[in-house]
Write a structure and sequence with these properties.
With 409 residues, the protein is an alpha/beta fold. Helices cover 43% and strands 16% of the residues. The chain has a domain at 305-405: Anticodon-binding domain of a subclass of class I aminoacyl-tRNA synthetases (Four Helix Bundle (Hemerythrin (Met), subunit A)), CATH 1.20.120.
Length: 409
């Protein structure tokens, strides 16, 4: 599966700072100091209804992570999956009388278009669950043969008790885990499971549903969590720098994935930092496909909204914040974009050397994009109100917000 084209990231004078970021597992701020190649895995979409503002906010957060790393003169190895086979996709295809694979292909293509328009840096490896199946099957077999998985009516489940470190990502108690498992794709009440929290690794073929050759597992399709584990281990290895996604993935997805990987490799942890973006609401409720209260990036683009303004709207909220999308949020972003473009359109201006460092400092501090925007706003106000004579300033500001914030002026 191919990703989307990359926009050029301008080089800035000097060098950026190492990223300090909030780690869900430790509930504290840690400093990430990767080697020459920083490694990040971000969980991708289930392509049956893409791309809403909640998606965009999540991928914007991890785009900033990449930009901070690139500014430190590191390379970035970024991997993202596409869950192109799963129950929600099949249910949507059945509801709309569509072929599930055509639905997945169409929505994935739309997602690529939206990511390109928003100038999100693409992953080097963009991998669908279906194409990952040949690598998933051996992992499930290894877990089963090691006694960390078991069969139940043809399905294969992972035993959470096989991982001594289970629970160290979410830090939730058993009852909270059980409730979230029931809400987020698990089946804690299924009779015959050794532990209600045990997640499915391989689902035996169901009548009328797509299935694949699973070797000794029989025909079927992979569970949700093992999909990301197989892709991450294949392209990043263990103990990569950042595992990212929305906060709704903390449990069960990232917890279960970590346990799968840790049992498979005997290493801990799967990732050095577990980083999660907040949820975006609309009309007082979390924006979600199940509720249908979605604002789509593609719809905004068709209505003539500049994608750069959409990006500025996302940047106006801290990535870990839960916030609400409103017409006012978008209007403020449109107005900010107009001010910024007017300021950098001048042939000269006030020095921007200090601004570069302010933006770097803000982003290195747990991706504080609102503080970075405020720093640019201050420069813009002075630029409009003051006669400067630095001919390089407007261009330096343009390159800075492009390189570090993904905002093209």
């Amino acid at each position: 599966m191919h990703a989307w084209p990359a926009s050029e990231v301008p080089a800035l004078p000097g060098k950026g700072r190492d990223l300090q970021i909030h780690d869900t597992a430790t509930q504290g701020t840690i400093t990430l100091a990767p080697g020459p190649v920083a490694r990040i895995y971000v969980c991708g979409i289930t392509p049956y209804d893409a791309t809403h503002i909640g998606h965009a906010a999540t991928y914007n957060a991890f785009d900033l992570v990449q930009r901070v790393w690139l500014d430190t003169k590191r390379q970035v190895l970024y991997v993202q999956n596409v869950t192109d086979i799963d129950d929600p996709l099949l249910e949507r295809a059945l509801r709309d009388n569509q072929d599930w694979s055509e639905l997945a292909e169409r929505e994935t293509a739309l997602f690529r278009e939206d990511m390109t328009a928003l100038r999100m840096l693409p992953p080097q490896h963009y991998v669908g669950a279906v194409e990952a199946i040949p690598g998933i099957v051996p992992l499930v077999e290894r877990l089963r043969d090691a006694g960390a998985a078991y069969e139940l009516d043809g399905d294969v489940y992972f035993s959470v008790e096989s991982d001594a470190n289970f629970g160290k990502v979410s830090n939730l108690d058993a009852e909270a885990m059980r409730l979230l498992s029931a809400e987020r794709g698990g089946d804690p009440d299924r009779v015959g499971k050794k532990n209600p929290l045990d997640p499915m690794l391989w689902m035996a073929a169901r009548p009328g549903e797509p299935s694949w050759d699973g070797g000794s597992l029989g025909r079927g399709r992979p569970g949700w969590h093992i999909e990301c584990v197989a892709i991450a281990l294949d392209h990043l290895g263990m103990t990569f720098d950042v595992q990212g996604g929305g906060s709704d993935l903390v449990f069960p997805h990232h917890e279960m994935g970590a346990s799968h990987a840790q049992v498979l490799t005997g290493e801990f942890p799967m990732a050095k930092a577990y980083v999660h973006a907040g949820m975006v609401a609309l009309h007082g409720e979390k924006m979600s496909k199940s509720k249908g209260n979605l604002v789509f990036v593609s719809a905004l683009r068709r209505a003539g909204v500049d994608p750069v303004a959409i990006r500025l709207a996302l940047l106006s909220h801290h990535y870990r914040e839960n916030w609400e999308w409103t017409d006012e949020v978008l209007a403020q972003a449109v107005a900010r974009l107009e001010r910024w473009r007017a300021a950098v359109s001048r042939p000269d201006g006030i020095s921007a050397d200090a601004l570069v460092e302010e933006v770097r400092e803000a982003l290195a501090n747990d991706l504080d994009a609102p503080a970075a925007l405020a720093a640019v706003d201050r420069w813009v106000e002075l630029q409009i109100a003051t006669d400067g004579d630095d001919e390089s300033a407007p261009g330096l500001v343009s390159r800075t917000v492009d390189a570090l914030l993904g905002v093209a002026l």
